[in-house]
Amino acid sequence: MSVIAPLLLAAVALLAPPTWASEPPPTLTAALQGKAAVGQARLRVWGFQVYDATLYAGAGFDAQRYEAQRFGLELAYLRRFEGADIAQRSIDEMRAQAPIDDATAARWLAAMKGLFPDVAPGDRITGVHAPGVGARFYLNGRWLGAVDDDAFSRRFFAIWLSPRTSQPAMREALLQTLPAAPRTP
């Protein structure tokens, strides 16, 4: 009986969904389990190719309520960028959509500067939104780090998924295979 109990507990632990709050998935494959690519887009700025974005979501993903669902967004860089520049651009985009108080913006910027590495062409940073918890980040499929702040995560992913994005064509391409939201009369 004493051998069976630990084996049963181990089997239950393996079948249980991941506990994002206490221990994020160590691999990108685990973090995106049950998710599939639903859209892709390339960001071009002033004729320069910046990155290819891919949205990974589960069946029934609702773009109108993206912040309430787990999903992943991968950016495959086509140019070199310093991590600090990626962080600054991210906070600028977040602030362009809606005000962020200075203390919060400074905290989020510091978190991103401490997390985002310099990238070269071919590098991929994938962010995974964990609703109610925060954002998990992976570099080239390996664990990079997390920002355990749900408000940060919602605002960060709004850069691409909010109707107020600065890149509406990119948002449309990322959401291209999702069913259209029902229209209200």
- CATH topology name: Chalcone isomerase
Structural class: alpha+beta
- As a whole number of angstroms, the C-alpha radius of gyration is 18 Å
Series of secondary-structure elements, N-terminal to C-terminal: HHEEEHHEEEHH
Mean pLDDT level: 86
SS field, number of helical segments: 6
Q: Summary?
A:
35% of the residues lie in helices and 25% in strands. The chain has helices spanning 4-15, 28-31, 83-97, 102-115, 150-161, 168-174; strands spanning 36-45, 48-57, 71-77, 124-130, 134-139, 142-147.
Topology:
Blueprint: H1 4-15, H2 28-31, E1 36-45, E2 48-57, E3 71-77, H3 83-97, H4 102-115, E4 124-130, E5 134-139, E6 142-147, H5 150-161, H6 168-174
Antiparallel strand pairs: 1-2, 2-3, 3-4, 4-5, 5-6
Helix pairs in contact: 3-4, 3-5
Provide a descriptive summary of the structure in words.
With 185 residues, the protein is α+β, with helices and mostly antiparallel strands. The chain has one domain: Chalcone isomerase. Helices cover 35% and strands 25% of the residues. The chain contains 6 helices and 6 strands; from the N terminus they run H-H-E-E-E-H-H-E-E-E-H-H. It has helices spanning 4-15, 28-31, 83-97, 102-115, 150-161, 168-174, and strands at residues 36-45, 48-57, 71-77, 124-130, 134-139, 142-147. The chain has a 6-stranded antiparallel sheet. Helix 3 (83-97) runs antiparallel to helix 4 (102-115) and helix 3 (83-97) packs across helix 5 (150-161). The protein is globular. It starts with a helix and ends in an 11-residue tail after the last helix.
